[in-house]
Amino acid sequence: MLDHIAIQVNDIAASAAFYDAVLAPLGGERKKQFGANISFGVTGHPLWLVPAEDPVPSREVHIAFTAADRATVDAFHVAAEAVGAKVLHAPRLWPDYHDSYYGAFVRDPDGNNVEAVCHRP
């Protein structure tokens, strides 16, 4: 159902570098630049970073990216730590969600909650 999402960022270069690093283990990469806007994806352009134009702080966004397996979630976590991301939750099972839910959660440069999740056992 979801085709794409755009999130406003305060520093487009810093945010693009963060997403370059954390999406690489998931197979994601920069796909397109349209003016100052930058898209990321495996195919298509599902995630867009756009410069924030409103000085009012925005609310936190939660973005969860699909990982093929648990090792990929772990690699996402390592990549996030390597670029200095604040770790909210290290990779682990989340049985409250379901028995095979394995995820890691970090903050992007704008304070958004970014997750990699594998639903496979």
UniProtKB/TrEMBL annotation:
Could you identify this protein by its name?
Answer: Glyoxalase
Organism from which the protein derives: Streptomyces nanshensis
Task: Tell me the leader sequence span.
Answer: none
Q: Which Gene3D superfamilies match?
A: 2,3-Dihydroxybiphenyl 1,2-Dioxygenase, domain 1
What domain of life does the UniProt record list for this protein's source? Answer: Bacteria
InterPro entries recorded: Glyas_Bleomycin-R_OHBP_Dase, Glyas_Fos-R_dOase_dom, VOC_core
Name a Pfam family for this protein. Glyoxalase
Occurrences of domain VOC (ranges) = 1-119
